[in-house]
Structures are given as C-alpha cells and as structure tokens.
Amino acid sequence: MIKLLLAEDQGMMRGALALLLGLEDDFEIVAQLGNGDEIVPRALETRPDVALLDIELPGRSGLDAAAALREALPECQVLILTTFGRPGYLRRAMEAGAAGFLVKDGPVEELAVAIRRVLTGERVIDPGLAAAALSAGPNPLTQRERDVLSAAVDGATVADIASKVHLSPATVRNYLSSAIGKTQTRNRMEAVRAARQNGWL
To answer: Given the DSSP bridges, would you call strands 2-7 and 27-33 parallel, antiparallel or unpaired?
Structure first.
C-alpha cells in the first residue's frame, strides 16, 4: 500500500480528496491535516510514502513544510497540489525538494498517476506551469526585499514594517524602493501584488 498524508485547509476539499484517493486499491490515507504546523510531526508519526501539500495553509506554508519534511523524513516524496499555479511557487517548491507540482483543477486520475510516478523517482510538474516558469525567469527579489514586502501586505506604514522586520525606517525605504524597481511597479502595494501574482512571496 502507498501511504498518503493530505494537508489542505479547506475541509470539504480535503474530505473529497481523501474519499477519491481512497477508492484507489493501492492507496491508504494515513493523515488528513488542515494546518501546516502539523505536517512534520504527523509525518514522523505515520511515515507516509507521499505527502500531498497545499501551499497556502494556516501556520507553516506548504512550501516551508516541504523543505522541513525533506529534512526530517527524506524517504517521503512531496507533491504540491495547489489552486495557485504561479511560476515563482513552482520554483520555490522545486528548491524545497518537492517531487511534483500540480494545480487542483486537473482530474483525480492524473493525481493518482502522479503519486505513483513520484514514488518511482520521477518529477511530475504541470506542463503549462513548467513552460510559464521557464519564461518568467528566477525571482529577482532578495530575501530581505521579500521580508519587507510581506510585512507591507496590509498597508502597514514604514515604521510598522521597520518594527516588524527589525530594521531602521531608512533601510526599509531602501528595500521597498528596490523591490518596486525590480517588480516594475509604481508603489509598494503594486509591488506586493506583482510579487504575489508571480509567487515570489
């Protein structure tokens, strides 16, 4: 049997996935989670062969959990399953050691095939997204620029951002200005939006 861990914050989607995958003769769902912080502890407890992770989860994101899972349980293959088919997310998933990246609008049969393929050592990536990621190029933002933009998400002031990321207001302004230039936008909110659309945040 192929043991699966599912991490998806929407209860109905998680239940539907578990039900559909459970119909496959060789699959066993060993854990269903709605929070990213639970992924590594439950994986160590249940020892899944494949972890299906959503990206946007409460607590730790699926991308962060993928990296932690590869370190804690290297024999577990990670398959990212998301609504957000963004080139930057794909790149980050691959950097985190994910074996596959699929968008949720595909048929469940494709997902079942992908699970079996990653267990044979293959990489499985949504073809349309792979092409988009190649044409989009790498993330131009530094880690500090991403931190500052992430802190600016809710329209925070420079002083708020500075306090949150432990930098001086002048340094925050420099990082914001640099991020705005790199995203070719007019202000910090447009820069946040562009970075999110590309999956850079």
So the answer is: parallel
**Rounded Cα gap, residues 46 and 133, in angstroms:** 34
Angle between the 169-183 and 143-151 helix axes, to the nearest 10 degrees? 100
> Is residue 164's pLDDT more than 60?
yes
Q: Look up the pTM and report it.
A: 0.70
pLDDT in tens, 107-129: 888 899 999 999 999 999 887 67
pLDDT attached to residue 2? 96
Burial class (CB within 10 angstroms; exposed 0-12, middle 13-18, buried 19+) of 90 = buried
Ranges assigned E (strand) in 8-87: 27-33, 50-53, 77-82
Domains and CATH numbers, the chain: 2-135 (3.40.50.2300), 143-198 (1.10.10.10)
The rounded distance, in Å, linking the Cα atoms of 44 and 39 is 9
Residue 201 CA to residue 192 CA, distance in Å, equals 8
Report the chain's mean pLDDT, rounded to a whole number. 89
Distance CA 152, CA 45 (A): 37
